[in-house]
Structure formats: C-alpha cells, structure tokens
Amino acid sequence: MPPANDAKAVVVRDLEKRFGSFTAVNRVSFDVSTGEVFGFLGPNGAGKSTTIRMLCGILAPTSGAASVAGFDVSTRPEDVKSNIGYMSQKFSLYEDLTVEENIDFYSGIYRLPADKKLSRKDWVLDMAGLAEHRHTRTGVLSAGWKQRLALGCAILHEPRIIFLDEPTSGVDPMSRRRFWDLIYQLAASGVTVFVTTHYMDEAEYCDRVALIYRGELIAIGSPATLKATRMSGDVVEVICDRPQDAASEIEKIPCVTEVALFGKGLHVVTYDCPTAVASIKDKLASLGFHTDRVEKIVPSLEDVFVSLIEERDRAAGVPL
C-alpha cells in the first residue's frame, strides 16, 4: 500500500532518460501536490511525453528516481499503473465499438467489481454527456465527444492521479474549454491532474506549470509568479496596421530585443521601456503607419516562455 496521508502525489529527483547518445530528459526534479492541476509545457520534442511515460511506469528511467502515488516507478511500475489514470494524445478507444461497449471493455481491463460496473458506467455517461449516445458507434463521434469519453474511460477505476498527455490536441476551442471544466471538477474532488500541453492558454488554467526545453526543466511556478518574476525585460503591446511590416522596422530600434506577432498586434520586448515606447511611436508615425496603441503590458505566459527559451539557447550558443 502507498504511504498514508502523503501530501505529494508525484516526487521526481534527477530523472533522466537516454536513448543511446541522445538525452531526452536531463536530470529533472519537481514535486506535484495531491489535488493539484500541474501543467507540463514545452515545444514538440522537448521531453514532455518521455517524462510522462516514465512517470506512468511505461518507460524505465536511465537514472534518477521518481515515485507516483507512493510507488517507485522503477521497482513497482505495475503498482503505479494500477493507481493512475492515463489518457494519451492519440485517441486510444475502439472506434468500431459503441460508447457503452468501450466503457464495458475498460471496466474489464480495470477489473472493476461486478457491483460497481453499472454505477461507474452511468457516472461516465453522465460526466461526458453521452447518455443519449450510449449506443452510438464511437468512430462517428466528434473529436470533443471522443475526448470526454476517453477521459471517462481513463478514470473508470477512480484513480487519485491522472496523467493527460496533450489531451486537447486537434480539438476545437469550445470543446477544449468544456474539457477543462471536467478537469476542474476532478481536481475539486481531490484528484491530482498532471497534464502536458503546448497551448499557452491552457497553462493559465493550471495551479502550477513547469517548462521543459531540450530535456531540461527551465522554469516552474504558478502562472502569475512566472509572469511576474521570470520575464527578461518589459513587454510593450503595439496595435497598428500592417503589423508584419511594422515588426521589421521596430526590430531596428536599439533598446528592442525581440518583436513577435501576437494576435492582431505585436509584442515587443525591451530593456528600456520608456525609450522603446517613444521610439516606436516616432518611427511608426514617420513611416506612415496608423497606430492605435503602444503601451507596456503584463507579459503573457507565451512571452515568458519564449524569453526563457531564447535565453537558454543564447547561453548554449544555439543560433536564434
């Protein structure tokens, strides 16, 4: 049995995974508290899925240590698997089966007691909003419905920790929002949610987020803390016509370190905000741009993460 009253659902210390000479995960360390919604962010190939597969007992670490639900992932991977829920980024249910048949199948996989199968099935159908579609073949469901069904099947056995690996990839924004409502409901009931994503807006929904890049953990904290403490420089929002053309001109201003398209405007990173704001206004006016807004703003998580990644690349001598 796992330790009683363990406040940490996941404990990771110097976890490493190498494939030959390639280091996919490089000595990462972090904790996840019970009932926390923990976001694990990074670009494709950063090491997110490799880390989550080690924590789920699917992939053996090369070195380091980790425990999930109180079980060591290296020595007791089967105990880890039986105490977690896991939802992969690729839809993993059987599309030729109906909604109800998929739930029945996973009830058997998780060896649910006969007296609980019906109540848990009804719970999943209600949670996912699929009661009226219980006899529908899964393959004809929309991506959003499939996603909720997959989540329901992953938590049929009522795990206290659930791992979601890029769960909303390819799903429309409204379905993503509804899916996160379900995640909040799980967290409110005490379930620990560990979610990997590359959507910055989803990171805002998490209690804490960690950024992994090139296999290394380069930042961890609440979204508010990261935005307040980890941004290198100030961010100026520029709303003007022809933003792409404006970006190439703003980049020439000496105190500007970075310019990026953001929505319908630009985010400009600078180490001298008053000078940058004045220079941007003057330059755009002199070139005939129509400008609606040039002012300092609170950085977005995307601003912070891009800044941290570029800072890490510069330190490593990687061309930007």
CATH topology category name of the largest domain: Rossmann fold
Named CATH architecture of the largest domain: 3-Layer(aba) Sandwich
The domain count comes to 2
Mean pLDDT: 90
Radius of gyration: 23 Å
Uncertain residue ranges: 1-5
Q: Structural class from helices and strands? A: alpha/beta
- The counted number of beta strands is 14
Distance between the termini: 49 Å
Helical residues, percent = 25-40%
Which sequence of SSEs, written as H and E, runs from N to C? EEEHEEHEHHHEHEHEEHEHEEHEH
Strand order across the largest sheet: 6-7-8-3-9-10
- Annotation field: number of helices: 11
Largest pleated sheet: 6 strands, mixed
CATH class of the largest domain: Alpha Beta
> What percentage of the residues does DSSP assign to strands (E)?
25-35%
The CATH superfamily of the largest domain is known as: P-loop containing nucleotide triphosphate hydrolases
State the shape.
globular
